[in-house]
Amino acid sequence: xRRIHAGFTLIEVLIALVIIAIALTAxxxxxxxxxxxxxxxxxxxxAHWVAMNVMxxxxxxxxxxxxxxESNSGESTMLTQKMYWQYQIKPTDNDNVxxxxxxxxxxxxxxxxxxxxxxxxxxxxxxxx
Length: 129
Known about the structure:
Blueprint lengths: L9 H54 L7 E8 L2 E11 L5 E9 L8 E8 L8
Antiparallel strand pairs: 1-2, 2-3, 3-4
């Protein structure tokens, strides 16, 4: 009479467990990487929105012919994040057009994480020298 063995041997079970452990480690590492990148992307997105708001304010002031400082800085809070912005208006080859550069940082007087460039109609009465 022959015995019928059903099930896995101990070696087969251990090999299966090692394969599962390696796969779960890879999944956990990928999840941690994605989580850390998500925070950075959120911060960069908020900074870009702040830069676009500042650029829009400068462009609207230019359209309304309000005097603009050659450079200005301030802070904005958006989505509970405090951002520090600075804009600078520079002349271009065309006397009627000026370049506006907006930089946004997460900390005051630190390196910007977003830089946005736009243009406005200048003329001597638009941009204060």
